[in-house]
Specification:
The chain is of the alpha+beta class and about 425 residues long. It is built from 15 helices and 16 strands. It has 2 domains: about 240 residues, Bira Bifunctional Protein, Domain 2 (BirA Bifunctional Protein, domain 2); about 90 residues, Anticodon-binding domain (Rossmann fold, 3-Layer(aba) Sandwich). A hairpin with a 5-residue loop joins strand 3 and strand 4. Keywords: Aminoacyl-tRNA synthetase, ATP-binding, Cytoplasm, Ligase, Nucleotide-binding, Protein biosynthesis.
Amino acid sequence: MARLQPPRGTKDLLGEDMRRHQRVIDAGQTIFHRYGFRQWATPIFEDTAVFARSLGESSDVVSKEMYTFEDRGGESLTLRPEGTAGVARALVSNALTQVLPQKIFYTGPMFRYERPQKGRFRQFHQIGAELIGAESAFRDAEIIAMARDFLVSLGLGDDLTLELNTLGDKASRMAWREALVAYFRQHEERLSEESRARLALNPLRILDSKAEQDKALLADAPAFDDFLNEDSRHFWQELKAALAAFGVAFVENPRIVRGLDYYSHTVFEFVTDKLGAQGTVLAGGRYEGLVEEMGGPAVPCIGWAAGIERLAALIAPPAEEVSDVAILPMGDTALLKAASLARTLRDHGFSLAIETRGNMKKRMDRVVQSGASHVLFLGDDDLARDVVQLRHLATREQEEVPIGQLVEALERARNS
């Protein structure tokens, strides 16, 4: 029988990988709490229309990468390829559009059928945040500051650069879009095959094409700055002033775009050169039509998401968690007493392991290697006298402690 392996583009999270993964989530939860964000969890699969409507039928995700299937009832369902659409759907489904703003964060697995490569999987994990009801550029700056604080808390502040751009309001963006289409139509025969397909459906995506022949045309493409109206320029200046007030450094990058029509004004990416070609570790932007797409009112929002696998690859591995205490029972009767002691100590917040396998030397070797701070020896004589032998492994000091006073003795030792 062939040896079973995880499906292509997926991986098991074990040992150090799991500790890195959890450290990213824990850091995010700490920072989100400081900014007043609360966690939501949406299903990992939704009605296909949730993603087809929100991402657009012409997007690469919808046309090439979604895991879509028909269930036994004939419903078309899709494993979520990203988190924002589900959050917007949940807002409308739960009648929360009149209770704004909503400050939300989420974490969990996403699914895209694409070519696996370094830092990119078919089942991957994201951590993200959405501010629904973001009434001003100041709120955009605040959520970007939250992203910066999150990355700094992971120790990545020196390795990342914030790149920032504006897409302006809808009127500015549509004027620019028309100018881009006219420009690229003049040079259509020089575009890559993929960009020629995008020209009719999603022309802004040509700006982030990786094809060299497309890049050669971008230098002379119409600049968005020439199409910003006065309201959009004012929003852009407010955003930059607020970021400065929050102490967030950035560089302007006019090539950052979002191909979907509901994105507006602010778009940003935190990038690194530590992961090769896949340099973006966190990205986001302002959007104003997504809640409306889900059947709700027009609500301005801003959000971002980060790939946990990419962040985990950049951070230092956390130390492995170890038990505070190990119990070494000697004999069957002592083993049952060890179970009773373990319950008492765990109820008082101690992490604990009961070592039973092998002779005493082997058990002690495992305890020392585990990093436990204390070990309890429990033999027949100890049981008869209702005591345990408590050894502090760092100092090798050992004392006899009445079982009724064991919790207090361990708490003193833990606090000293």
